[in-house]
Amino acid sequence: MSGHNVAREQGRQAMDPHRYDELKGILEERRREIMSEVQGRMRDVRAEGAGSTVQGVLDAAESSELDIQDEIEFALIQMKAETLNKIDEALRRLEESTYGYCFECGEEINEKRLRALPFAVRCKDCEEAREVKVQRDRLMAQRRGAASLFIDMQG
What we know:
Largest sheet: none
Strand content: under 5%
Number of strands: 0
Low-confidence stretches: 1-12
CATH class of the largest domain: Mainly Alpha
């Protein structure tokens, strides 16, 4: 049975109502925090944009610096939006009674892990194994790329 099926089977067991309320509270609180941060950043970006026209003409260095700051702000907002999507997915899984179970092994995800990363989809052991595999695959791809470069140079 795959991890998803195991999680679904375990999820069908009634979750303790106290745990459900606590997990939902954690997710909703994190969602509120991030929404507040995103709204604050967007207000700041708008305010800075309006203020820059008052300052007059900027030289190339100032303009470049502002562009970089804007790109960083946009990237941060984008990361927060992705986190919000993950939280929404976690809330959906909570409603489906599959939240809190590892996608890989189907075991319950440790409470401390869920508190730190409320949208976690894998237990600590499975996430570490996945990260090792990703790192190994990346290293193998780099080696293949280096080997093909070496072969091209000989040909």
